[in-house]
Write a structure and sequence with these properties.
With about 500 residues, this protein is α/β, with parallel strands linked by helices. The chain is about 45% helix and about 10% strand. Bound molecules: 2-acetamido-2-deoxy-beta-D-glucopyranose (3 copies). It is a single-pass type I membrane protein; Single-pass membrane protein.
């Protein structure tokens, strides 16, 4: 008994110690929130002694030891007016994803720094982490370095990703962000969701995948690329997928053992606030409303009449307001209760007990922070999956969605009034917060554990779905159904035939 206990403990300790590894992160597309969402993981891995090389368009602001940035791959920051991106329907937003993926990929992959990195043979890596949103070819880095691949998903995985892993994405209740529904879908919504799902499952393979392969075959001609397996096989062969989501913020759905939810990795323990903010927040007897539309939406880009709606509604409230915004027009007279600034420590502000409401664009990271701090929200979504996120918030009951295109002083004011006056919103926020916080491990620790797990095992093929070898006819049992129907048909026909014979004889 005793020796086996000792043996077991030694074994347990041995299997949890991981040698320092050379890790490559390859997510070159210039989509900031996708990279920022996983950067805390890369930093933590470097802290733990791994040598992390990050190929991305967003280097760290301050370099840290054991962490090498390669990039960026954009020559000038292309300011994009967010108003170009809004107003999408469920079909055009699937096509938009394909188009953005190919355009941005051509841009970053043809950059001279990227060519240099791809051609270089001076480094070797034990593990490759890639993001596959619009950059499926990135998985070829696993082939170049002969290393296992971890996939980083910036939000709850959608059909374009889950199909390669054989994660069920049942269209009847797992909503796609493009359809902007929740898991509670009526007939029309299920129809839309099915169309979006089928586009990603099948149409994509003809309209989009060939273009991705072209990018891969044009720009990823490293030494030995001729022996590369087909893109589909490499995508099937990913060891593990880390997903930036959590069911307290998203929906409850089936995953496989190799799909790990790590949403909220960026949330650290609250830090003390700067003096002026602390005073402002402490002094607000009636409470504080925090207003931020994230990094991409600049309030100055919004139509002036919409901006006026926000300011005049907020100016009438008795609460104090903090707005992340630098007015570009110095003539604007702001009401007394409003404080503005170009940047605020959002997570730390939300942690302050006097903050009673968060007005947000519904970005995933903002919602993770608000849920963690149990603050109800009023959401004004703009693009990407923000509308979808806010619909889920409404379903879970800790906030209200206001449509930006139809916003009026009345609709915006009423939403704020309702969320502040009805305690149900706060109660639901507290419930979500408890659900989110009650986890066996913090999301960042979980992510580190699983990355090191893949390093320890030199890949995690055993976590993949056992169905990978099946084609769709076998997977959905179409072949079996066909035979069954044939069989039933034959029997029915024989019965009818015999019956007819007997009847005929009697006549
Ligand atoms: C960098 O890695 C080494 C081991 O490779 C480790 O001893 C050191 O603590 C790491 N440095 C930092 C700042 O994380
Ligand atoms: C760490 O990674 C960098 C960049 O890939 C590389 O230049 C360096 O040699 C690596 N260090 C070690 C100790 O492997
Ligand atoms: C699958 O990944 C393993 C390493 O995890 C590698 O040895 C193998 O060659 C890969 N196969 C394909 C088809 O990519």
């Amino acid at each position: 008994m005793l020796p086996s206990v000792i043996f077991c403990s030694v074994l347990c300790i041995a299997t949890t110690i991981t040698r320092a590894a050379n890790i490559l992160v390859f997510m070159p597309l210039p989509i900031k929130s996708h990279v920022r969402g996983f950067q805390p993981l890369f930093q933590e891995l470097s802290n733990r002694g791994h040598n992390v090389t990050v190929v991305s368009s967003f280097p760290l602001d301050h370099p840290v030891a054991n962490y090498t940035d390669i990039g960026p791959f954009i020559d000038k920051t292309r300011a994009r007016n967010v108003m170009d991106l809004v107003r999408m329907n469920f079909i055009t937003s699937v096509q938009l994803k394909w188009r953005i993926g190919i355009q941005l990929s051509e841009m970053v992959m043809s950059h001279r720094n990227m060519k240099q990195f791809v051609q270089s043979n001076s480094n070797s890596y034990d593990l490759v982490m890639v993001e596959t949103f619009g950059q499926e070819y990135a998985v070829a880095m696993g082939h170049k370095f002969n290393a296992p691949v971890i996939n980083l998903a910036p939000a709850m995985i959608w059909t374009s990703i889950s199909k390669w892993l054989h994660v069920p994405s049942t269209f009847s209740y797992i909503p796609d962000a493009c359809t902007q529904s929740t898991s509670d879908m009526g007939f029309v919504e299920r129809l839309k969701n099915t169309i979006t799902g089928l586009m990603q499952s099948y149409v994509e393979n003809y309209l989009y995948l060939p273009k991705t392969k072209e990018v891969m075959n044009t720009y990823l001609k490293y030494k030995g690329w001729e022996s590369r397996p087909p893109l589909e096989h490499m995508l099937n062969n990913v060891s593990l997928t880390l997903v930036n989501s959590h069911n307290a913020i998203g929906i409850s759905r089936p995953y496989l053992p190799g799909i790990i939810e790590v949403g909220g990795m960026h949330i650290k323990d609250p830090k003390p606030l700067p003096r002026n903010l602390q005073t402002f927040l402490d002094a607000a007897r009636q409470g504080v409303i925090f207003f931020s539309f994230g990094t991409l939406v600049n309030l100055n880009d919004l139509p002036k009449e919409k901006l006026k709606i926000f300011i005049s509604v907020l100016g009438r409230l008795k609460q104090k307001i903090i707005i992340k915004w630098t007015p570009d027009d110095s003539n604007i007279k702001l009401p007394q209760n409003i404080m503005t600034g170009s940047w605020f420590p959002q997570r730390d502000i939300l942690a302050h007990p006097n903050v009673i409401l968060f007005i947000t664009h519904g970005g995933l990271h903002s919602l993770e922070e608000t849920v963690c701090n149990a603050k109800p929200v009023v959401g004004v979504p703009f693009f990407a999956e923000q509308n979808f996120n806010m619909k889920i918030v409404e379903e879970k009951g800790y906030g209200k969605l206001v449509n930006f295109f139809e916003i009026t002083e009345e609709s915006f004011g009423n939403a704020i009034e309702e969320v502040l006056s009805n305690v149900m919103f706060k109660e639901k926020a507290i419930i979500q917060s408890q659900v989110y916080k009650d986890q066996p491990m913090k999301p960042l620790d979980r992510a580190v554990y699983w990355v090191e797990y893949v390093i320890r095992h030199g890949g995690a093929g055993h976590l993949k779905s056992d169905s990978i070898g099946l084609n769709d006819f076998q997977y959905f049992l179409f072949d079996i159904l066909f035979i069954l129907f044939l069989y039933i048909g034959l029997i029915s026909w024989s019965c009818y035939f015999i019956y007819a014979k007997i009847m005929f004889k009697n006549v």
